[in-house]
Amino acid sequence: MAKKETKSNLDFPFGKENLTWMFIGIGVIFIGFYLMIGGGSDDPKVFNPEIFSPRRITVAPVLVILGLAIEVYAIMKKSKE
């Protein structure tokens, strides 16, 4: 008869801290993409200069790149577990 193990031997590559950093990174990326939304015009013949706002041109892409950097950090960080 085979002996049953009571403790699970699952070996996950990421620990709790890594997953926390990953979710933070995903949240920052989503915030960056959310800030890029909008600025269009209801009438295609009318130009809306709101598409060139600093929020859409600088802040949102910086947040997306920051979120990707957080993701790289979360993947590369050595787990303590």
Keywords for this entry:
2 helices; 81 residues; elongated; mainly alpha
Number of helices: 2
Distance between the termini: 33 Å
Instruction: Please report which band the strand proportion falls in: under 5%, 5-15%, 15-25%, 25-35%, 35-45% or over 45%.
Output: under 5%
Shape: elongated
What is shown here, in short?
By secondary structure, the protein is mainly alpha-helical. Helices cover 54% and strands 0% of the residues. Helix 1 runs antiparallel to helix 2.
Give an account of the 3D structure.
With 81 residues, this protein is mainly α. The protein has a domain at 21-76. The chain has two helices and no strands. The two termini are 33 Å apart. The model has no long low-confidence stretch (mean pLDDT 86).
Chart the SSEs and their pairings:
Elements: H1 16-36, H2 54-76
Helix pairs in contact: 1-2
